[in-house]
Amino acid sequence: MNKNTILAVLIMIFFSNNAYSVLVDIQVLQDAAINRNTPDTNQNESGFGGFNDRLLVSSTNTTTLNESIFGFDLTLLPSQAVINSITFNTHRIFSSIHSFDSNPVHIALGNTDIWDANTVTWNTSNGDHGDILDTQIFSQDSTPVWVSWDVSNIQQQEYQDQLLSFYLFTEPLGGSFGHNDQFEIDTAFLTIDYDVAAVPLPAAIWLFISGILSLSAFNFRKN
After folding, report:
1. Max CA pair span of the chain
2. Which CATH architecture describes the domain 22-197?
3. R_g of the chain, CA atoms, integer Å
């Protein structure tokens, strides 16, 4: 095996392994609740019926239905990031009026990321989401707790769009979660685990070719 071949193999091995993993938390950009009883009312602007410190996710009968929407900005992720996993985290808030009772709460990816927390309503957004990504079931108790959903099963192009929206919705009964406008400690966030090459691929290719050309020139001068 000549020197050129050895160098080529070493460079390829180096760049194929020259990557690192990153774990990052991204805070929610905006969030809002939507209510079927008041389909044209923005809940953030209306004070949310005395519950403006929380986001309701409930379905108590055929007329009362609350869903919540969460928007995230992923522009801080490097363009060459390869996502390993995404976890959606939010803080469950207990109250005597709205409490979970062993009912599933679903999360789904929104079909559009263009919405405003201060104008969105039930009629402008209800049902505008894809298939369920994950489901959690909670017991009824008085303990506030952080809850996580695995939302990794979405397409790579969704990450590259830089904005992501998620819907939380439930079957009969429900509860409430921390709202972005009130207490920062309660706000939802994404935990993203991704890999990124230490040297971008174009640079790796350029270095590879440069190394080969340099060795070739050296051998030519030597001969």
Report:
1. 88
2. Sandwich (2.60)
3. 24
- 181-205 per-position pLDDT tens digit: 555 556 788 888 888 866 555 555 6
Kindly give, in sequence order, each residue whose CB lies less than 8 Å from that of residue 196, ignoring residues fewer than 6 positions away.
19, 20, 22, 78, 80, 81, 82
Q: Write the secondary structure of 40-76 as one string of H (helix), E (strand) and C (coil).
A: CCCCCCCHHHHCCCEEEEEECCCCCEEEEEEEEECCC
At residue 22, what is the residue type? V
By residue count, the chain amounts to: 223
pLDDT in tens, 94-139: 654 444 556 678 888 888 888 898 889 888 886 678 888 998 876 6
SS3 188: coil
Q: Quote the pLDDT of residue 151.
A: 92
CA distances from 198 to 19, 25, 162, 205 (A): 5, 20, 21, 13
Task: Please tell me the pTM assigned to this model.
Answer: 0.71
Whether the CA torsion 196, 197, 200, 201 is positive or negative: it is negative
CB atoms within 10 A of CB 166: 25
